[in-house]
Amino acid sequence: MCGIVGAVGLANCGDTLLDALRRLEYRGYDSAGIVTHNGAGFEITRSIGKLASLDSLIRKNPLSGDVGIGHTRWATHGGVSEANAHPHIAAERVVIVHNGIIENHRQLRARLEQEGHLFSSDTDSEVLAHLFVEAFDAGLSLTEATKSVLAAIEGAYAFAALVLDHRDMLIVARNASPLAIGLGDDASFIGSDAIALAHLTRRVIYLKDNDFAFVTAEGAAVFDAKGTPVNREEVIVAASQGLVDKGGYRHFMEKEIHEQPDAIAHSLAAMTGADGRISAPMSRDQLHDITGIVMLAAGTSHYASLVARYWIEGLARVPVTCEIASEYRYRKPVTSSFSTAIAISQSGESLDTLMAMRHAGENDLQTIGLVNVPGSTIAREADAVMPTRAGPEIGVASTKAFTAQLTVLISFAVALAEVKGAITPQRADEIQAQIQAMPGLVGKALTSFDAIRPIAHDLASARSALFLGRDVLFPLALEGALKLKELSYIHAEGFASGEMKHGPIALIEDALPVVAMLAADEVLGKAASNLREASARGGRIILLTEEKAVAEVDFAESVITVPNVDPLLAPILLAVPAQILAYLTAVEKGTDVDQPRNLAKSVTVE
Ligand code: G6P
Questions:
Q1: What is the 379 CA–ligand 1 centroid distance (Å)?
Q2: Within a domain: 438
Q3: Residue 15 belongs to a domain
Q4: Among 255, 483, 485, 601, which one carries the catalytic annotation?
Q5: Catalytic: 601?
Q6: What does the alpha-carbon distance between residue 501 and residue 503 come to, in Å, rounded to a whole number?
Q7: Which residue of 169, 303, 439, 501 lies most exposed, with the fewest beta carbons within 10 A?
């Protein structure tokens, strides 16, 4: 999603803003821009495409001034063009950057145009700059002008404004979209998240919904929607400068795939009690009170929830439903049969998931946020937090956050099952031991890069591929297909193996790649015969499986094995070759692995 940065009180801040924007590249963008105030007027540079284009423009024409704002834009309203790139200036007096959507922008624009305001973009965002000009023309003070702008707009937003006559400050505000204020020694900063500011400061203030603030070099004056001064706590964020580089890997995604043993081990640590046993970060009573769970998530996080449903229902006998976050609240769900909502989100900022969680909370469900970013909105708003500790995930396609989510969810399922008395102590011990072994087993699964390379080479020329799995591996088939399509742009679909015969088998034609996930579980025989049917019709079977299940599918064209594991935990282990296959296929095709086209890391619009 769009990224916002800003600085005030920092000499020649243009380069610093560019650096901060680089840290937000992972959110996805298609154009970018920076504006500074040089004491006499605004200096603005905007460019479509990658930040390298903006960088070379700035090299030719350096930006001067000690206050400025920058933006990476991911097009929503209006195509990808320099005119639509932020910042947007109105009447040479107010310049803004904005993340989110101003839902009533059409009416506002029509009114402003009637009043004589000249617009220069197709964006919804530009109305913000004109609304400020309108308010200042009406003689309103800074505070009153900001309040009137906020009262006029509807939707989710975070924005920053720089005013020609007030070069010592930035005006910022947010509702639903994230915004962090960073406090330095002699300067202050703003960013869509703390990662953007990690090289500048660790002292951060997060605005609450409907807050606005005046940010000066000395700090921030924060106000609530009514304009009453409020005190928002300053926190020290954990993000540090070294966390966001490729560490010698070709892509962030490759690095993050390799970080999975660590990500899993750290996440497990957060789920391990003083006695060394895996538990959930909540009391026995709290666990006991969980009688039904609705899982809310988007994208890869949704597939993690689908895996967890097998675990929680199978082990703890607690009913679970998994909802695509963007569908949840609008279909007016019946919530009375659930006690608890678990919102799963790597970023903790996906607006669909946040809104779904709020809806669940408003309907009296206890909310638990399973998030990777500790200070994120979902983490702050949930009644309780179960963290993943995967570290910053920069590649748009989620990898280490997914296996960390699965690790936390299986740990939660076992803890719940134990409290509910739904599992024998012996079975609990077995699963606990397997979970504890996961970092090492995932480390072994990482050794399959070279074996997967030739398979990826062939797959890169396919137009379409199927992913099949049964039982707890069915959601992993969905995730495997998502990874391939989002990274390599090859059409891919995931199906439950047993469902093939009810329709999808019609898709099988000669040499169609069929990626099959298999474990030595109770449905092994059935899953293998589903694959045999696909193979008999010309499907080229690429088998991802544990060593002890290989013999069952002697007709597979290629086989990638992972170490033997309790079948329950197979999705964590088999996720690794599925990720590597998608990664290497994308590398083979030469696509933009870390920032696939049209995608954003964190989607903060509905
Ligand atoms: C975006 C990303 C996906 C991600 C999804 C949910 O669509 O491109 O990779 O799975 O958001 O993100 P979250 O941060 O809520 O897990």
A1: 16
A2: no
A3: yes
A4: 601
A5: yes
A6: 6
A7: 501
Q: Which helix (H) or strand (E) holds 358?
A: helix 351-362
The per-residue pLDDT for 103 is 83
User: Atom 3 in ligand 1: which residue has the minimum CA distance?
Assistant: 299
Note whether residue 439 is domain-resident. Answer: no
Q: Are residues 30 and 53 in the same domain?
A: yes
Ligand 1 atom 8 nearest Cα:
601
Q: Which ligand 1 atom lies nearest to the CA of residue 28?
A: 8
Over residues 492-512, the pLDDT tens digits come to: 999 999 998 898 888 888 889
CA neighbor of 156 nearest in space, from 377, 381, 380:
377
pLDDT tens for 7-26 read 999 999 999 999 999 988 87
Yes or no: say if 3 and 606 are a contact pair by the CB < 8 Å rule.
Answer: no
Tell me the C-alpha to C-alpha distance, in Å, between residue 385 and each of 95, 138, 232, 381: 38, 46, 20, 9
Based on the fold, state whether residues 417 and 455 are members of the same structural domain.
no
74 CA distance to ligand 1 middle (Å): 15
CA of 62 to the centre of ligand 1 (A): 36
CA distances (Å), origin 173, targets 51, 122, 170, 189, 220: 25, 22, 10, 14, 12
Q: Whose CA is nearest to atom 7 of ligand 1?
A: 299
Same domain, 472 and 564: yes
> 243, 259, 292: which is the final residue of a domain?
243
Atom of ligand 1 nearest to the CA of 353: 15
Q: Are 37 and 126 contained in the same domain?
A: yes
Q: Round to whole Å and give the CA distance between 124 and 108.
A: 9
Question: Is 184 in contact with 201 (CB distance < 8 Å)?
Answer: yes
Q: How far is the CA of 575 from the centre of ligand 1 (A)?
A: 16
Q: Which ligand 1 atom lies nearest to the CA of residue 397?
A: 9
Kindly list the protein residues whose Cβ atom lies closer than 6 A to any atom of ligand 1.
298-301, 345-347, 350, 353, 396-398, 599-603
The chain-wide mean pLDDT, for the chain, equals 93
Which tens digit of pLDDT belongs to each residue from 439-493?
989 989 999 999 999 999 999 999 999 999 999 999 999 999 999 999 999 999 9
- Which strands make up the sheet holding 491-496, listed edge to edge? 491-496, 464-469, 513-518, 540-546, 558-562
Q: Is residue 431 part of a domain?
A: no
